[in-house]
Each structure stands twice: as structure tokens, then as C-alpha cells.
Amino acid sequence: MIKIPSFHARSIRAHLFWTYAALVTVLVVALMALAELAASRIVFDGAQRELEQLGRRTQEQLLRFQEPARAWLEATANDPHAGLEGDNDISVLRMQMSMQQRYPQIGSLVFGYPDGSFQQNMVLRSARDRAWAKSLPEARYAQQIIRVDERQKRTEEWVFYDQQMTAIASQRRPWGERYDPRDRPWYQGASDLNLGTFQATDPFVLKVPEEFGMALSRPLSGARGGVAAAMFTVGGLSDFLHARGEESRAELILFDAQGRVWGWSQADRLRRLLGSGTPLSLSSLSDPLYGSLHKLVEQGAAQDTPIHSVEGAGGQRFAAVVMPMEGVFSHKAYVALVSDQNLLLAQVRRMRWMLLGVGVAGLLMLLPMLFWMANRLATPLKNLVRSAKHIREFEFDSDIPQDSDISEVRRLQESLALARIALQGFSRYVPRPLVKHFIANRLTPQAGVEQRELAVLCAALDEQHATAVTWSPHAEHYLQILAVEVAQGKGMMDRYESCTAVALWNTPLNVSNPAGYACEAALRAVDAMRALAEGLNTTVKPPCFGLDFGGATVGNFGTWDHLTFTAVGAPLDTARALARQANALGLNVAASRAVALAAARYFRFRLAATVPLGPRGELHEVYELVERIVHEVDAKHVRVSEPAAVA
């Protein structure tokens, strides 16, 4: 038996729609991807140029960042009134304090001398600075002086000034022994330099105030000698970078080749991290973004400044440019400019949504054309489907149109028309009910005949009250009931002769116990026909049934120009004779001994008579089918194939 696969099919219009939608979607996605790549390239190139320009401006500003300190050092080195040499000339002091107020990147201005004397001028910009200096709340400037007398005794004095640079307090403190300028990096290197040259120190921890920073120093030309220096704190440099970063919405970091941070636009955070007094490096920051910046310096060439996409904490992407900077505090340093990549790609995303909107709008505008194209192809195919359905039902009255202008559909129309003509001619030789039966049960027809064990049920009206024409109108209802019960009981109506009808089991379908199925169908038909006869109040009594079971020949019989699927053999003749005996004996269902043996386990039989049957007049036992033993229909279907014995 051939099994036809079952699946859920869609119409050709739906296929065309989804195919077109998929193609348009792929096209829109491809265009969006190409446009996004192009826009990303344009945006990244523009961002790279912008960041490079910002880096150059920052480099220029960092170089100018040192200019006030260099100018002060050049003027101070040859000024006899500067430092302790000038005996605290108030005009010079006010000039120094004004410069510090104007250039907040300068933390303090100091003088150191060979005998250990020291002077420092600073601006108290915050409450933290005033608390560190232990000054009055209204103090804005402070001067620290450490003097050494002839006996090498060190004394420390603090003088505080208000906003108008007027001295408001003076204190002596026993801290002179705690600080010696000769031990500091800014003094040691500069004291050995020639006059007129500058020294820039590596970042170190300043003593006053205790903050990470660096110094620019120069030897003094006076008779006493010594060194003048301008102190730059990392916090002050970070404030400068913070102002530059806010202008460009980028984060700026200044670091050297070893990865030590000199300045950061996040000035407040940097001050907190430097609170321990230890230098800060990029690798010590708890963010992979900053560690990647040092790797970019190690991997890239000095002249190569492309924009990079680096990953930060939480998977966030950033665009970064690292530029080398020469001459910053006489060291080679690098400035990194970092910007949120999402901000750079905001324009790309807007373009992406714009393209998506254009694609959806285009798809909606092309829908009418889609339906027109789908209908142009679907209409002739729907007509072909309708014609194929008629051919399947063996209805050959309607012609198949051949009017499509699509070549493939036209060929399909021609092929189906030829198939219709061929099947119409072939139906002259094969009965239509037989072919329908094979199609309905998905069987493969086999040519020729074969021997089978059949159960035969013959229904016969009383010959004294019925003829061939008396099947209609009331007897026709009996026939319909019989046909329904036989079909539901996996049987096959074989033929109608005179006032008899014959049904077969175990052909063409194979059943496990054909006698049991035939008995069940007979009892159900008897009950239904009795109910119908009582309702119609007809003079035509329900037919009586004869049942036999045995070997018979089944297949296609007939002549060369017409074949009929039927069965021939002794069980059919015996069933007809038993139906006549049922009428004579007043039985509803008369069964042969073979049926009683095959179905006795689930049906009760009673021996009614022993009568001669057949042309030779041989004696046969006639049993009456009384009732079912098992009333559950499901149990009957499961157990009907088990061995049987006569009760």
C-alpha cells in the first residue's frame, strides 16, 4: 500500500507574497548594511580628524601650559629681589601670587638654597588646602619660609594673606627639620645644570602639598646660588584637561611611555586615586579601556594615529585616538582622546532607521503589483486544480481551458487535458467505484484474480412480496442502511441482483476476522431496519440475511472491453441459499457452520435446522445469529481475530 505524505500546503499567492517579502527584506537589510558600513566609515573618518585636531590643540595648549612657569623662571633666575634674596619684597610676592591665581595649573613657586633654606609661595584655593596649611578661613595665599642661622639651626615661619594680598597672620612652627630642599628631585638635578637651562622632573610626590606632581626648575644666578622651581600638580593638569574635554565631549588622558598617568580629564576621580600618595598607572585602573590605551602605544608606530574601537567595562565600545606629544615637561608623552562610540554612531543609526522606513514604504507600495502578479499566475492554476479535482472524481463533463499566456502553465493545461482524455477512455474498462475505492483507501491496484477467504453477507427480501422494482421506494431505505453498515464495518458492497444484495469482507481490504465483522454488520443492520420498518409502517418487510465464510476467487472479471471487480465461488451461492432459508424459517440472520465456528467466541448462535442446500442437495446445518456476547464495540475490533469455537 502506498502512503501519501500529509502536509499543510499554502496557496501560490501566499508563496509568491512571502517569497517577494523575503527578497525585499534581504535587499533592504543588504542596503542597510552597506549604507551603515559607508556611514560608519565616514563617521569614523570624521571623528578621527576631529580627535586628531583636538589632540593637536591639546598639545599646543599643553606646551603653552608651561609657558607662564618658564617665563617666571627666566625672570626669577636673574632677579636679585626674588626669593630670600629680596627679603620678601611685597611687590615681587604679589606678582608671584597673581600669576598663580591666573594660572591654576601652577601648584606652588619654590626657592631652595645650598644651606637648606627654603621658600614656597602657594594659593589656598580650597578648604582642603587651608586645612592642610592650618590657616584662617579667610586666608587665600600662604608663604612658607625655612631659614638656617649661623649655628645651622632651622626655623620655619608661615605668613598668610587675604584676597587683597594683605598679611593677616604669621606663625612659627617647629617643622623646619622635616623638610630639606636639597633632598628633593627638583633641586638635585637643577643644581648641576648650567645657568639658563631648565630641568623637568619625572612625576613624584610633592611634600608641600602632599600631592602627586612634577616640577620645572632652573638654577639661580645670584651669589648665593640655589634653585627656583614651579610645581605642577597632577590635579591641576587634570583640571586643565577636564576643561578641554568638556569642549569636545571627549575624555583626555596624558601618560608617559611607562603608562604613568600625568593628567586625566576626570580630575576629581584622579585626586581620589592619588590620595594614597602613590603614582597611578593605566593598568591599575579597574577598566580594560585604559589598559588598551597603553597597548595601542606599544603596538602602533609613532606617526600612526588611526582611530581605534576599544572595549570598556560592561562591553561598552569606545572610539580612541592616541597621539605622541614631544616637549611636554621635556619628556615624551602621549595624549589619549576617548569618546563614546554610541555618540559617534548616532547618525548611522538614524540613517539605518530611515533606510528601514524607506524599505517598508517601498514594500507597501509594491503590494498591489505583487497581488496582480500573483493573481495572474494563481488564477489559471486554481482552474487547473478545480479540473484535477473533477478528474479525480471521474467527472469528465467540463473541459480544461488552455488560455494562459505563461508557457509553463500552458504546458500544464495541455498535459492535464491529455490526462483527462486518457482517463476517460480507460474508465470504459475499469469500474469507477472500484478505482474510487482504491483511491479512497490509498491502495495499489493489482491486475488479475486471486483466492481469498471471504465472509459473504446476502440480504434478500421475501420473494412472495418483492421483486427487483420493489427496492424502491421503501426497500431502497433498507439498501441504504445495509450499505452504510457494510462500509462502517470495513466491508464492500459487491452487487445487487433482483431482490438480493451481496456484501463481501476481506477484499479488497484485508481484515483480521471477516466473519466477525460480517456478523456485527448484520446485527446492526437488522436493528436499524426494524426501527425503520416500524416508523414507515410499510408492507415490505426488512430483508433476511444469509452468512457464509469460505474460499472464493476475487478480481476483475468480464470481457476485453469492460471489466468488473467482483467475487465468484461457493460462499456466494451458499449465502444466497441461506438468505432464502432465513425467509422460510422466519430467521433474521441465517449463518453457516463455518461462520458459527469462526465467530462463536463473541456471538451466540443457535442451530435452527439441517436442510439440503446446493444443486446436489447436500445437508447443511443452518444457525441463527442470536446476539453479541461482547457489547463493547472497541473490544470487538480488538479481540475479533482470536481463535473461535462453537458454543
Question: What would a concise description of this structure say?
Answer:
With 647 residues, the chain is of the alpha+beta class.
Quickly count the helices: 16
Helix content: 40-55%
Sequence stretches where pLDDT stays below 50 over 5 or more residues = 1-8, 465-472, 634-647
SS-derived structural category? alpha+beta
Q: Estimate what percentage of residues fall within beta strands.
A: 25-35%
What descriptive keywords fit this protein?
single chain; 647 residues; alpha+beta; 16 helices; rod-shaped; disordered C terminus
Structure, described:
With 647 residues, this protein is α+β, with helices and mostly antiparallel strands. The chain contains 16 helices and 22 strands. It has helices spanning 12-77, 90-102, 127-133, 185-190, 234-248, 267-273, 288-299, 341-344, 346-392, 407-426, 432-440, 474-488, 514-536, 570-585, 593-599, 633-639; strands spanning 106-112, 118-123, 141-148, 154-161, 167-173, 199-200, 204-205, 212-219, 227-233, 251-256, 261-264, 308-311, 317-328, 331-340, 449-460, 491-497, 500-505, 544-559, 562-568, 589-591, 603-613, 618-628. Strands 1, 2, 3, 4, 5, 6, 7, 8 and 9 form a 9-stranded antiparallel sheet that branches. Strands 15, 16, 17, 18, 19, 20, 21 and 22 form an 8-stranded mixed sheet that branches. Strand 16 (491-497) and strand 17 (500-505) form a beta hairpin. Helix 5 (234-248) packs antiparallel against helix 6 (267-273), helix 9 packs parallel to helix 10 and helix 12 runs antiparallel to helix 13 (514-536). The radius of gyration is 56 Å and the shape is rod-shaped. The model is unreliable at 1-8, 465-472 and 634-647 (pLDDT under 50).
